[in-house]
Design goal:
Number of helices: 16
Largest sheet: 8 strands, mixed
Distance between the termini: 15 Å
CATH architecture of the largest domain: 3-Layer(aba) Sandwich
Mean pLDDT: 95
Number of strands: 16
CATH class of the largest domain: Alpha Beta
Strand order of the largest sheet: 3-4-2-1-7-8-9-10
Length: 369
């Protein structure tokens, strides 16, 4: 039985895009591969626990610098795993430059196949990012295969494009079990529609951070008449600023953090799914794919090099407008017809982004590497 080590940022119950992909990979390899995962621990101390039957080593994070976690005992813990576990395949989830520093010495005398799972370019920390240019080149050179989550990201990345012969596209997936709904969700969604009877219900959810573009949605809402309601779920560091920005617009309601059950209900109830992300930090858009799974077309911005415009196709599964153009975004909301886009959106997810398809792609990669 081959041994697979995943090196990632954090791991469930910490929630995030990279963390979910790590878990999806682990579940895809269950039964036929021996697995280990090493990640940072956002709680107290180092510890080892089991997630979905896989041993997870969590290394205590002492600080964060420019979004990068720092753990003083990481090198020691990685050395222990490499020596005892002796993996046949290492999957490294990028970006994680602090950990790449420790991984480098094992890559120099590589005794394993190396998969570089490239989630996104370092774009926000442009000055700091330049310090890792040499590290990036080394990782890309050592990689047996490089995984990107969309062809758009390969074409738009200055790092991946020159290495496209090593690249393979494995889109992120939606978890069908998580998204299953029953009559109780349908009944609750009907009550939401009754509450906003006669109005077009627009829904958005996600962390309240800059790249999610919620400020643009708020400003687009100001151009709409009172036949619309804009429901925004989630929380984050920008929540208070967004609430202040929207305070004179009675069409906007902030729902706070919602449970999975509540998310299902709002996705069933809404007429338009709004996904106003504005930068490549939104590398794929799992939330977008989830809404499409429910048969909801979406309104997105054009994000060069991002997978968002691969997940949702302009004039097929939704409407794509010029990045940051709130006038065009509002016009799209006013002209949106989900009957036109909803079926196409659901079909696209079923054709490309289901968990079963992800599992097949991951297992095929490991078999041929």
């Amino acid at each position: 039985m081959k041994k697979v080590l995943q090196i990632t940022n954090y791991m469930y119950p910490h929630i995030g895009g990279i963390e979910q992909v790590t878990r999806d990979i682990a579940n895809s390899l269950r039964d036929d591969y021996e697995q280990r995962i090493i990640c940072f621990n956002h709680e107290r101390g180092n510890k080892v626990d089991m997630i979905d039957g896989v041993s997870v080593t969590r290394v205590k994070c002492q600080a964060k610098v420019a979004s990068q976690s720092i753990a003083l005992s990481y090198g020691k813990e990685l050395k222990k795993i490499m020596k005892i576990f002796q993996p046949d395949i290492v999957i490294f989830h990028y970006p994680n430059p602090f950990v790449a520093h420790f991984l480098k010495k094992y890559l120099k005398k590589k005794k394993f196949k190396f998969i570089l799972y490239w989630h996104l370019d370092i774009t926000k920390q442009k000055i700091i990012g330049k310090f890792f240019n040499g590290q990036n080149k080394f990782l890309l050179r050592c990689a047996d295969k490089i995984v990107a989550t969309s062809p758009n990201y390969i074409e738009g990345s200055p790092w991946l494009l020159p290495n496209r012969e090593k690249c393979i596209v494995i889109p992120c997936c939606v978890n069908e079990n998580r998204l299953k709904y029953d009559n109780s969700h349908i009944e609750k969604s009907k009550k939401i529609r009754e509450k906003y009877e006669g109005k077009t219900i627009c829904f958005a959810f996600g962390r309240h951070v800059e790249y999610k573009g919620l400020s643009y949605l708020i400003n687009a809402s100001k151009l709409l008449d009172d036949s619309f309601v804009v429901l925004i779920a989630g929380k984050g560091p920008l929540t208070n600023d967004l609430v202040k920005e929207a305070k004179n617009d009675k069409k906007i309601e902030f729902l706070g953090k919602v449970t999975d059950d509540e998310l299902k209900t709002y996705l069933l109830a809404c007429d338009i799914f709004c996904f106003p992300s504005i930068t490549k930090n939104e590398a794929f858009g799992i939330g977008l794919a989830e809404a499409m799974y429910y048969g909801k077309g979406a309104i997105t911005f054009t994000i060069p090099g991002s997978g968002v415009n691969y997940v949702s196709i302009n004039n097929e599964t939704g409407i794509e407008v010029e990045n940051g153009n709130i006038v065009d975004y509002a016009k799209a909301m006013m002209s949106f017809n989900n009957i036109k886009y909803g079926t196409n959106a659901k079909n696209r997810v079923r054709e490309l982004f289901l968990e079963s398809q992800f599992k097949t792609r991951i297992r095929t990669l490991l078999e041929v590497i």
